[in-house]
Amino acid sequence: VTMHYFSRKALKIYSQSRGRKARVLLPLASVFLTGILFLKATSNGHQGYTHPEESGGSAMAERLFRREPEETATPRKTGEFDVVGSLPGLPSFKLEEPGYVHKVELSGEEAALAEEIIQKEAFNRIASDKISVHRSVPDTRDPECRSLVYDSSLPSASVIIIFTNEAWTPLLRTIWSVLNRTPEKYLHEIILVDDASDRGYWGMSLLKRLGSRQGLIRARLEGAKLASGDVILFLDSHCECGQQWLEPLLQRIKENPKTFVVPVIDVIDDKTMEYYHSNGNYFQIGGFTWSGHFNWVDVPENDPVQRNKTLPTRTPTMAGGLFAVDREYFWESGSYDSAMDVWGGENLEMSFRIWQCGGILETIPCSRVGHIFRSFHPYSFPGNKDTHGINTARTFEVWMDDYKRLFYLNRPDLKNAEIGDISERLRFRREKGCKPFKWFLDTVYPQKFIPDDPNNVRGYGRFINPGSGSCIDTLQNEEKEEYTLGFYPCHDFSSASQFFSYSLEGEIRGEESCATVNSETLEASSQVIMSPCNGNPSQKWDYLGNRFTGKEHLRISPCKILTSQIWDLEKDFEEP
């Protein structure tokens, strides 16, 4: 496959080894990146196909760069490419073939092999290899986006893609989608950074890899140091860019260089490679949980984007895999916390820092990029450490002031964890005059539920049944799914499993879920379910005096004010 790319820009492929950088840079008027991979593949498809991972890379005969004479170069048109070789298992394609819009169907031995690979790699590589690296994707934007006109003089972008042991076809599809759907004048360069891949098919002379695994955070920092475009734009290595994806991002950065912008992220199914997308006028923004995880939340009803679906929308946090920012402001705003290991927590750290230190973080509805969301991480973490937890503890210690108490309530295991030296990050915060976290909650994320705040709740803590000495308990269930509310012998007030709030609206709730009964089928011994809070009467509970009696409890029965139906609320703001 020939990456045919005309401009005075370059496709850069970088790698680092300890203390030095090696790179291949072709800053020519006409550049061809030619990858010729000869494997046991036929011209008709997968018969006899051996993937380079299984062959240990020995099947790869050649990969090279060549420069075409300038006088023979013909400017490329969208969708026109020269095929000079074959990639692993890639036959010729037509638009109606698998992956154009619909999912890839597998059967027999292929399906069995795919399932085996999914268990190792967290996505279906067999299905991916059946799809063209140039496949078209649906235009998922709101129709109003298609009529917008952007400035003709937008800043240029350096696209940075970090990978480690990424499969061939998702990576190539990412690169091609950038080249196919980006105006030449805005694409300054593509920078690939290989974070110490150790699979056979990355054992080529073209790429020299990091001598040891550095992780996404430090690898991205290396890529950012090499960038020379006006804007740096990070993409994960398994994305597909939509129509006119870049211009809305660049336009917003041009209008305010202190703005970090993220596209709306569509889902590419990790098992079928189907490109899912929501209605163009619906999307979500980023939130966070007190346990230190990113989550998706709905756009507030009073947000201006509810009336105009093309408007940039402020988002409290970002997922972190895909974003763009003015290159100079990236460094001025603190870049990444380089003391964080590998991956995890860096997106919340960056989000809080952006807002608290004078920047803006926005979702741009008219920019859409597809992304393969894997169900688990197929790579290892050095030392088998909980890097996400440790990185998040660093974040909360630096940026969340006294609100870190709620993090440690959910993660008591991290109270005394070794999180490294945070003095430089604290110094940065002081010198920049960054705002307190309460400002962030009041101004940026006022809809965030604070479980022990008297402005949100009437009381909080353990719900204790005095007759049995037991407490309402999550039984270690997570809030992201519905679960049956249980009870368990009360333990000390150091874990979130017995921590509940009684809201001003009369809900017994966790962070995002409320104790719920099915009001249509009230039966004795029916269980109480924790489900997303929705304000319905089935989630309202009575509180009499300083004791909670309620309508139904755990297993519901008619209220008789029996000892088994009375629960003390540990902390009552209205108690004298």
UniProtKB/TrEMBL annotation:
<keyword id="KW-0328">Glycosyltransferase</keyword>
<dbReference type="InterPro" id="IPR029044">
    <property type="entry name" value="Nucleotide-diphossugar_trans"/>
</dbReference>
<protein>
    <recommendedName>
        <fullName>Polypeptide N-acetylgalactosaminyltransferase</fullName>
        <ecNumber>2.4.1.-</ecNumber>
    </recommendedName>
</protein>
<comment type="similarity">
    <text>Belongs to the glycosyltransferase 2 family. GalNAc-T subfamily.</text>
</comment>
<dbReference type="GO" id="GO:0000139">
    <property type="term" value="C:Golgi membrane"/>
</dbReference>
<dbReference type="Pfam" id="PF00652">
    <property type="entry name" value="Ricin_B_lectin"/>
</dbReference>
<keyword id="KW-0464">Manganese</keyword>
<dbReference type="GO" id="GO:0030246">
    <property type="term" value="F:carbohydrate binding"/>
</dbReference>
<keyword id="KW-0735">Signal-anchor</keyword>
<keyword id="KW-0479">Metal-binding</keyword>
<dbReference type="GO" id="GO:0006493">
    <property type="term" value="P:protein O-linked glycosylation"/>
</dbReference>
<keyword id="KW-0472">Membrane</keyword>
<dbReference type="InterPro" id="IPR001173">
    <property type="entry name" value="Glyco_trans_2-like"/>
</dbReference>
<keyword id="KW-0808">Transferase</keyword>
<dbReference type="GO" id="GO:0046872">
    <property type="term" value="F:metal ion binding"/>
</dbReference>
<keyword id="KW-1015">Disulfide bond</keyword>
<dbReference type="InterPro" id="IPR035992">
    <property type="entry name" value="Ricin_B-like_lectins"/>
</dbReference>
<keyword id="KW-0430">Lectin</keyword>
<dbReference type="Pfam" id="PF00535">
    <property type="entry name" value="Glycos_transf_2"/>
</dbReference>
<keyword id="KW-0812">Transmembrane</keyword>
<dbReference type="GO" id="GO:0004653">
    <property type="term" value="F:polypeptide N-acetylgalactosaminyltransferase activity"/>
</dbReference>
<comment type="pathway">
    <text>Protein modification; protein glycosylation.</text>
</comment>
<feature type="domain" description="Ricin B lectin">
    <location>
        <begin position="458"/>
        <end position="570"/>
    </location>
</feature>
<keyword id="KW-0333">Golgi apparatus</keyword>
<dbReference type="InterPro" id="IPR045885">
    <property type="entry name" value="GalNAc-T"/>
</dbReference>
<dbReference type="InterPro" id="IPR000772">
    <property type="entry name" value="Ricin_B_lectin"/>
</dbReference>
<feature type="transmembrane region" description="Helical">
    <location>
        <begin position="21"/>
        <end position="39"/>
    </location>
</feature>
<keyword id="KW-1133">Transmembrane helix</keyword>
